[in-house]
């Protein structure tokens, strides 16, 4: 009777503490401990592992969700045969997240449709899965948000928000021109992250033409100086994925 009473008390305690996985697997672990004569400590480890595993999985899903990725394409779905100019080993090194540990940047440079955003997103997902705070945003959306914050007197708060992420992915720099005042906002963010946090950027504009994007040579050079100082540049020259199925090659 006492054993039954203790079991029910334990079950009640676990339910009260909202340890749902431990409740769910309690009978299984108790049966295992009896059959295999495992110690009390080993039994607890086995039971708590069920709870931790689910919480870790939920945490990873949450980290990926809040990162704001445009899609959930990972590196294993990237067609390196279609873009043979890309160094696959280099991409695997990025996936190790060594660049984040070293507070380094990555810049994907190339024309529209060659896979820049796919690669940036894949690395971002890997970072989020390792519980690195990660955020993806298109350049024009970032500028609009900073501009709005400035106009409403809360620029400092927004700059801190975007500075906090261990990995910030800024997509499509150069697709739309940025006026001088907005360029200053962008510079402030890049300057705050410089040598402290990692940033991945994608752009279709050669660096020599960035003064045409930011409409000010001095600001453009200051931005580039901080981005490129500790950065790996991946230049992609190849066909567009978006046109891949419209114009099949003779080999297909």
Automatic annotation (TrEMBL):
Keywords: ATP-binding, Nucleotide-binding. It holds the Pfam family IstB_IS21. GO terms for molecular function: ATP binding. Residues 102-234 form the AAA+ ATPase domain. Gene3D superfamilies: P-loop containing nucleotide triphosphate hydrolases. GO terms for biological process: DNA replication. It comes from the Bacteria. Belongs to the IS21/IS1162 putative ATP-binding protein family. NCBIfam families: IS21_help_AAA. This is AAA family ATPase. It comes from Macrococcus lamae.
């Amino acid at each position: 009777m006492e054993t039954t009473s203790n079991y029910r008390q334990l079950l009640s305690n676990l339910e009260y503490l909202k340890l749902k996985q431990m409740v769910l697997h309690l009978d299984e672990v108790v049966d295992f401990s009896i059959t295999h004569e495992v110690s009390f400590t080993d039994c607890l480890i086995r039971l708590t592992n069920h709870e931790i595993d689910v919480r870790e999985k939920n945490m990873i899903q949450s980290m990926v969700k809040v990162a704001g990725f445009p899609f959930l394409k990972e590196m294993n779905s990237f067609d390196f045969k279609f873009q043979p100019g890309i160094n696959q080993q280099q991409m695997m090194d990025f996936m190790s997240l060594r660049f984040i540990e070293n507070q380094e940047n990555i810049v994907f440079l190339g024309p529209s449709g060659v896979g820049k955003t796919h690669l940036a997103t894949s690395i971002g997902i890997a970072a989020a899965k390792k519980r690195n705070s990660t955020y993806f945003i298109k350049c024009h959306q970032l500028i609009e948000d900073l501009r709005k914050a400035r106009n409403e007197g809360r620029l400092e708060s927004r700059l801190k928000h975007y500075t906090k992420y261990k990995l910030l992915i800024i997509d499509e720099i150069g697709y739309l021109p940025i006026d001088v005042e907005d360029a200053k906002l962008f510079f402030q963010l890049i300057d705050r992250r410089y040598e402290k946090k990692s940033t991945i950027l994608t752009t279709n504009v050669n660096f020599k033409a960035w003064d045409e994007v930011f409409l000010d040579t001095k600001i453009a050079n200051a931005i580039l100086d901080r981005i490129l100082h500790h950065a790996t540049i991946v230049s992609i020259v190849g066909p567009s994925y978006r046109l891949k199925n419209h114009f099949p090659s003779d080999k297909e």
